[in-house]
User: Fold this.
Amino acid sequence: MKKLIAFSLICCMAFSITACQGKTDTPQVDSIADSPSVSTPKESDELPEDSQMKKETVIQEPEKPSLSEMPVQQSTSAHEMRSFYCTHTDGKKIYTELYTPQNKSDVLPLVILGHGYTSSYRYLRGYAEYLADREIACCIFDFCGGSDYSLSDGSMLDMSVVTQMLDMELVLNTLKEYEDFDPERIYIGGESQGGMVASLNAAELQDQIAGLILLYPALYIPEVMRERFPDRSAIPDHMNMAGATVGRRYADDVYEIDAYKEITKYSGKVLILHGDKDGMVPLSYSQQAEQEYENAKLVILPGGGHGIYNGALLETACEEIEHFVTDETR
Assistant:
């Protein structure tokens, strides 16, 4: 029951904060260009008489897309922001913002961060701007159906941790094709429910990422759903989760997940950030995760509650992420 109350509080906090903001107009966006297809040169009809070379079909590697092809929506003296959509095969679009340093001279490390329950990419802008100012690209986005004011498609009635895993994977697969990013230095992460999403994705995509960044991850979601619905068949089609209405799949998709068993299939390096005053997601969940992972570092933020978006704690959290990403290359 304590876990259920805690989960309700986190949902309520996110909902009450974000609901008062209202839905903003969608900024100008541009779709990412498709990569050129593989081209096959025409074979010569004849080879010189004295040539012993065998005829071969030469396959040219396709050129990778570049950020230079995409317009900049906003810029400062240190970084610039591009906005665009990533599109699922069913047509659903994910609103995405990408922050990169000005005048980059080399391929960049890339961090992809997912937001929490009923929240938005907007709350992660502080992280994105900080990292971009320090030569680390950062991508933030709205999950499909992630909130009632999301700039992405989809309804909260169709949203779950599993659908959000697919959203994050699409963003990763889209950006890793760009020549601007080092494929050996791509990191995924997220806050609260977005942290749960990233941790499950890391277990499945570990060959594609260099590390995992978790901000007060809500690893107890499957446990809470089983406590709320001891009889799985009793899960309703619609349910109220602390002021927001979600569909049956929100509970059903995670019902059988053993969180620690699944997430610790990831064997790469992990950074966990968690405030010691978090009354929504107990610190004990991150402490257990640190013990379960093969290579994890837990940073406890003194005085930190749930949701670290400004002030000295944001600065500290960003510094830890910067060090986590750059240690390999210093």
